[in-house]
Specification:
The protein has about 120 residues and is α+β, with helices and mostly antiparallel strands. The protein is built from 3 helices and 7 strands; from the N terminus they run ββββαβαβαβ. It has a 3-stranded antiparallel β-sheet. The protein has a two-stranded parallel sheet with strand order 1-4.
């Protein structure tokens, strides 16, 4: 399965192991632009979906997906949000920042996310 970025460009799979990094451009016939749809499609038939653990979690818990290629799945430290902190922060952005902080505090250890084939 392939994931298509908003601009239409296909996304590559990133793999890393013992200092060796590789980008893989899958040649699948199913191209989706929604990560949850990729996990759902992978759970319904043969195929591998390259999605973050947080997306695959419901299917993993139900036993509908299994993690593969763990030794090649890089660990990411989590999401980062950059904004001009020296200026007035609009109320909507402040609410979004507070929500992200609240969710991060509710899931200890969730900052390090392994992204890889599921």
């Amino acid at each position: 399965m392939c994931f298509r970025l908003p601009g239409g460009k296909p996304c590559c799979w990133e793999a890393a192991r013992r200092g060796f990094e590789r980008q893989i451009f899958p040649a699948g016939t199913l191209i989706l632009d929604h990560l949850e749809l990729m996990a759902e499609a992978a759970s319904k038939g043969p195929g591998i979906a390259y999605v973050p653990d947080s997306v695959a979690e419901p299917w993993l818990k139900r036993g509908e997906l299994c993690v593969v290629l763990t030794e090649w799945s890089p660990v990411y430290p989590g999401l980062a949000l950059y904004y001009p902190g020296h200026r007035h922060v609009p109320a909507a952005l402040r609410a979004f920042i507070d929500l992200l902080k609240e969710q991060a505090a509710a899931k200890p250890g969730a900052a390090g996310t392994r992204e890889g084939a599921r």
